[in-house]
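Practice problem: MFS multidrug transporter
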Amino acid sequence: MKGKASNTDSTIPARPISQLPQQSISSTPTQAEVPKAECTEKGTATEGPLKPLTDPACQADDDSEIVKWDGESDPELPLNWPSSKKWQNVVMVSALTFVTPFASSMFAPAINQVMAEMGTSNRDIGSFGVSIYLLGYAFGPLVLAPCSELYGRLIVYHICALLFILCNVACALSISMPMLIIVRFLTGLVGAAPLTIGPGTVTDCFRQEERGRAMAVWTMPVLLGPCLGPAIGAYVSRSLGWRWNFWLLIIVSGFKSGAVSLFCLVFQRETHPPTLLKRKAARLRISTGNPNIRHVDHTTISRSQLVTTSIIRPIKMLFLSPVIFGLSLLTAVAYGTLYLFFTTVTDVFTSRYGIVTNVGLTYLGCGCGQFAGLLILGLVSDAIVKRAAKGGEMKPEYRLPPTILGGSMIPIGLLIYGWTAEYRVFWFVPVIGTFFIGFGMITVFTPVGTYLIDAFPMYAASATAANTVLRSVGGALLPLAGPRMYSSLGQGWGNTLLAGVSLLMMGMIFMSLKYGERLRTHPKYQMKL
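Answer key — C-alpha cells:
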C-alpha cells in the first residue's frame, strides 16, 4: 500500500500493472478492457458502463487505500524475481505440462486392439478415439484461461491435475467406444490447463528479450510428449493390453502430480501479478481492519461478466485479427499433420516393413527432430531478436524468421517419409523423414507462440487461447481424413498432398513478417475487447 497516485492522467491516476513494460495482464479485464461506467460515491456500480475503482469518480477513500507495485523495479513483481526463482517456476510448469500431450498420443498404437474389443471395424471411429482428446484441448482454454486470471494460476494447475487422473481412471474402465470417446474428450479438456496457462507463466516472469529461451523450455514437453507417447504406448499395449496405457498414465500422473505438487508447495509461487496484488490487498484488509483497501486493478465488474468477457475475447481475436488467424491456421495444419502421422505410422511400418515388436521406436525420429530444433532455438532465438533490434525497439515480428526454416522442413520431411515408405525403401530412411517433420514442427510452434505473447502483451492468454483452439481443432479433425486419403492416394501422393498444403501455409509466415506490424496497428483491425 503506497502513496498517492499522480493526477496527470484524469482517467487512471494510479498506473496499473498492465502498463508496465512488456508485462502481460492478458485475460482479466482491467480499466483498459471493460466498458466505462457510472459509479456511486462509494465505488459501487450503478446502471450503465463500469469504471474501475482507480477512476477518481469511483474512489470513496484516498489513494493511500489502493495497493499497487513500488514502481517498475518492485522486487515482488515476478519480472524482477531472481533468475533462479523464475527458472524454477518455468521448469516445474514444464514438468506439469509433459504428461497431458504424452497422453494425447500414447493411445494411438492400441487403436486396433480397442476396435477389436469394442466390436467396431470403423477405422474412422478408432481414429476419433485418439483425436477427440484434442477437441478437449480446443474447448479447455476458453474456460481455464479466465479461471487462471480470476483465481490465480497455481490453483488451476493443481485442480486440473487431479481431474486428469480421475478422467484416466474412467478411460481405463470404459466398456464401450462411446464411453471411451466421451471421457477422452473430458481428459483433454482438463489436460489443456498447463498448455493454456504455461505461456502466461512465462510472460509473467520474463521480459520480451528473455522469453525466447524460456518458451523453448516450456514448449519441449508440449511436442516431445506426443512423440514419446506412441513409443511407450505400443510396447505397453502389446505386453499388457490397451487398458494399461491408461493405468500407466494414472500411475505416472499420480506420482508426478504428488511429487511436483509437494515441490511446488515449497518452491513454486503464484506468478500472476493481479492475483498477487489481490492477495496483498486481502492481507492488508485483515491486518489493518480497513475494508476499503483494494488492489489497483480492482473493478466493480461482476465475476460473471469477467468470465463472459474472457471467454468471448479469444474467439473475437481469432476471427477479427488477420495475424492471429493466419498464424493459427498455420499451426492448425501443422498440428493436424503431426497427429495424422501419429495415427497412421504404426500401420505403415507394420504392413510395409513387418515391424511389430519395436514399432513404437519409429516414433522417436520425430522426437529427436524436435529435440534438435529445441536446442537450436534455445541458443539463437533471443540472439536473433536482439540483433534485429540493433539496440532499438524489439518488434514481435523479429521472432518469426526461424519459422521460415521450420516451415520448409515440414514438407521436405513429408516427401521423404511418404515416398520412401511407398517404395519400401530401408525402414530407417522414412524415419529420417520424420526427423525433419519434428524439427519443422518445433521451429514453427515455438516462435509463433512467443510472437503472439509479444505482439499482444495485454491479451497474451487470450491470443494463446485463440491459437490453441484452432490448432487443436486441426489436430482433431485432420487425422479423421487420413485413412481414406492414404487408401485412395497411397503414402507417396498422400504425403505429397500434405506437403503441398504445408508449403502453401508458409504464406502466413511471409504475410506476418511483411505486414504483421501494419495489421496489428491498423485502425481497421483494432477490436473492442
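Discussion: Residues 1-61 have pLDDT under 50 and may be disordered. Students who identified this feature from the C-alpha cells alone can consider the problem solved.
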